[in-house]
Amino acid sequence: MARLSFETYLWAMMTFPTGPFSPLDLLSVGLLLFAWLLTGWLVEHPPARRPSVSLLMVEYRREWMRQFVTRQPRIFDANVIDSLRQGTAFFASTCMIAIGGGVALIGNSQRLEGLAQDLTLDLDGVVIEVKIILVIAFLANALLKFVWAHRLFGYCAIMMAAVPNDPDDPLALYRAGQAAEINITAAKGFNRGLNAIYFALAALGWLLGPWALMLGGAIAAAVVIRREFASQSRQVMLLRQP
């Protein structure tokens, strides 16, 4: 039996019926999820010779807590933690609003069908609802990450308050180290939430078709990789004292 060419195989995938979604749709969703998981794993487990921005910030957070022990007064540190909590609260509330909007769209299938006709898309209400559910799933994941990060930053603030004022106290550096690790975990949750938002935006491309979804996923992955491994801020973080 002769081997099928790539073009023949791709055409078969595009035309083989599988209900309202083609195999190309399923492939594009699978690639999007794979890109999301892969970029998240790569950011947290980068090559040893090329650390990511997130990994570089880990040591800066530990150094922050070491400096915190001897800093008097500690108002600056309290302001920074408060700013981090406000940031996570903002993104959490934004995700909740977006999820509410998506759920409202799902509940109005007639308007969705009218929107698809206006955009000259050959889609029925059920297909659009499923595609919006994918976006909502990413947003829900981001919301959970932001909520947890917000809570962890609160824990970090309390642990920082528990650091003795006397730098010579045996518990000072130990408590500061504990606060640093909680801070690092909170930042990890925050970064995962941002990653989910990037791919939620990419998932909107599915409304235009599987090719648009794959393109959106590739762009989202490229944005994350560039910001973590090839951004100017990363170069600044790598600078050593002359």
What do these coordinates show?
There is one protein chain. The protein is an all-alpha fold and 242 residues long. It contains 9 helices and no strands. Helix 4 (75-106) runs antiparallel to helix 6. It is elongated and about 70 Å long.
Top keywords for this entry?
242 residues, mainly alpha, elongated
Mean of pLDDT: 87
Percent range for β-strand residues: under 5%
Low-confidence stretches: 12-17
Provide the gyration radius in Å: 23 Å
Element pattern in H and E: HHHHHHHHH
Largest sheet, if any? none
Q: Helix tally?
A: 9
Oligomer: single chain
Distance between the termini: 67 Å
Count of DSSP strands: 0
**SS-derived structural category:** mainly alpha
Tell me the overall shape. elongated
Helical content stands at: over 70%
Summarize the structure.
The chain is an all-alpha fold and 242 residues long. The chain has helices at 6-15, 23-44, 53-70, 75-106, 109-118, 125-161, 170-203, 210-229, 232-238.
